[in-house]
From TrEMBL:
Transmembrane segments: none
Protein name: Redoxin domain-containing protein
Thioredoxin domain residues: 23-174
PANTHER family: OS07G0260300 PROTEIN, THIOREDOXIN-DEPENDENT PEROXIREDOXIN
Annotated SUPFAM superfamilies: Thioredoxin-like
Signal peptide (residue range): 1-21
Cell membrane among keywords: no
Keywords: Signal
Organism: Alishewanella maricola
Length: 199
C-alpha cells in the first residue's frame, strides 16, 4: 500500500513538474487558449502555418515605455506586413500594475500607433507560466510548424533609456528575421530584461 502511495506521489510530482516545465527552443511551443481584448478566443493551433511572435507587455513598465517610443511599433509593422501573427500578451492579474480592460487596450493601441494582430488577456497567468514569461517585455518566436525558435530579450542592453536601442544588438529582430528565412536563430535563447510579470 505504501509503495502504491509513493508511486502515486512521484507520478503527481512528475505531472506537476511537466505542467510547469520551462518551454524548450526546438520543441513544440506550449498551446494556449485565451481571450483577446475584444473577447475573441485564440489558441496557438489557430495560427498553424504562420510564424507567431509573442510579446509580453505592461504599458506602465518603464522598459516597455522605452520600446513603445517607436521601436516596438516598427517591429510590429515590419513583421505583420510579412504575414507574421504578432500577439501582445498581458499577464497582469486584476488589481496589479499593467492590468487593463478592452477599452483601455483599444485606446493604448490607437494612441501609441501599435500594430499587433491581437492583444491577449492572460489574467490567470496560465499562458505566461506555460511560457515561463518573466519580464515585460519578454519575446518569443514560433515557426510555421509550431516550434519555439527564440525566447528572451528584445535586445542586449537592459536599460530603460531610449537612446540605448540604437546601440544594442537586436536579439529579437535578428531571431525573427532568421526564422522567416528558414534559418535557426543564433542565439536562440537570451536573458530577458524589464519589469517582472505581475502574476
Amino acid at each position: 500500500m505504501k509503495k502504491m502511495t509513493l508511486l502515486a506521489a512521484v507520478a503527481a510530482t512528475l505531472f506537476a513538474a511537466n505542467l510547469f516545465a520551462a518551454p524548450q527552443v526546438g520543441a513544440p511551443a506550449p498551446d494556449f487558449t485565451v481571450k483577446d481584448s475584444t473577447g475573441k478566443v485564440h489558441s496557438l493551433k489557430d495560427f498553424a502555418g504562420k510564424e507567431v511572435v509573442l510579446e509580453w507587455t505592461n504599458h506602465d513598465c518603464p522598459f516597455v515605455v522605452k520600446h513603445y517610443n517607436g521601436n516596438m511599433q516598427q517591429l510590429q509593422k515590419t513583421y505583420t506586413e510579412q504575414d507574421v501573427v504578432w500577439l501582445s500578451v498581458i499577464s497582469s492579474k486584476p488589481g496589479s500594475q499593467g492590468h487593463i480592460d478592452g477599452a483601455k487596450s483599444a485606446e493604448l493601441t490607437t494612441s501609441r500607433g501599435a500594430a499587433p494582430t491581437a492583444v491577449l488577456f492572460d489574467e490567470s497567468g496560465v499562458m505566461g507560466k506555460a511560457y515561463d514569461a518573466r519580464t515585460t517585455p519578454h519575446m518569443y518566436v514560433i515557426d510555421k510548424a509550431g516550434v519555439l525558435q527564440y525566447m528572451g530579450g528584445i535586445d542586449s542592453i537592459p536599460s530603460a533609456k531610449v537612446d540605448d536601442i540604437a546601440k544594442a544588438t537586436p536579439y529579437f529582430a535578428n531571431a525573427a528575421t532568421a526564422v522567416l528565412a528558414g534559418q535557426t536563430p543564433d542565439p536562440a535563447v537570451t536573458k530577458p530584461y524589464g519589469c517582472s510579470v505581475k502574476y
